[in-house]
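Work Package 4 report. The design task specified in the project plan requires that, given a folded chain encoded as structure tokens, an amino acid be chosen for each position. We show below one input record used in the internal validation round.
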């Protein structure tokens, strides 16, 4: 997994219980999964901000020209 950092965090017991029940994992795995979801959410927000600004699909005629 690479480098890690040990941290101390105060988390409401009820929130932690709900998260662990939802993930079905132990405490460490639940926290890691939550951090991954936060990071992924930022990536999706960045993609949404670029919607309609990036042209990446070839023209339909080019796709058809590639057919035998």
């Amino acid at each position: 997994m690479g480098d890690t950092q040990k941290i101390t965090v105060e988390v409401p017991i009820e929130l932690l219980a709900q998260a662990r029940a939802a993930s079905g994992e132990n405490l460490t795995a639940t926290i890691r999964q939550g951090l991954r979801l936060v990071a992924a959410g930022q990536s999706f927000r960045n993609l949404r901000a670029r919607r309609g600004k990036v042209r990446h699909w070839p023209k339909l005629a080019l796709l058809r020209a590639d057919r035998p």
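The mean pLDDT is 85. Validation will be extended to a larger panel in the next phase.
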